[in-house]
């Protein structure tokens, strides 16, 4: 709404071509001020803001709470929605989770492997000698 009011005032003060509009694709849809007086521009900007006010919706009532199933139905036997019995898969037993977690904890206690033996940092070159004669100007 305020952006539309700004556009109306900008058009009234600078004209359609020179005004920097928030909505440059719709200057013809905006109302025009009759004169360049500040009161007339304010009135027209307020009218434009009211034209583009979003519709107010009445407050909605919260939805009713969901109905919980009867506890007797839950204990009568686990079946899926298709009528087949539900199957329980023990993933802890499949992946041996207690043993896996123990192995991970033991792995954290190990020292990391040493760097390769025989590597001498002093023997490695630390710079390259590059002369200007090696460079050719681009063609």
Explained architecture:
Residues 55-68 have a biased composition (Pro residues). Residues 45-83 are annotated as: Disordered. With 139 residues, this protein is mainly α. It has a domain at 2-51. It has helices at residues 2-14, 38-51, 71-75, 91-95, 97-109.
Characteristics:
single chain, 139 residues, mainly alpha, 5 helices, 36% helix, flat
Summary?
Residues 73-82 have a biased composition (Polar residues). This protein has 139 residues and is mainly α.
Task: Please give the structural blueprint.
Blueprint: H1 2-14, H2 38-51, H3 71-75, H4 91-95, H5 97-109
Helix pairs in contact: 1-2
Say what oligomer this is: single chain
Task: List low-confidence stretches.
Answer: none
Question: What composes the largest sheet?
Answer: none
The rounded distance between the terminal residues' Cα atoms is: 59 Å
Q: Provide the structure class.
A: mainly alpha
State the share of residues found in helices, binned by percent.
25-40%
Order of H and E elements = HHHHH
Beta-strand content bin: under 5%
Counting DSSP H or I runs of 4 or more residues, the number of helices is 5
Region (Disordered): 45-83
Biased composition (Pro residues): 55-68
GO molecular function: DNA-binding transcription factor activity
InterPro entries: DRE1A-I
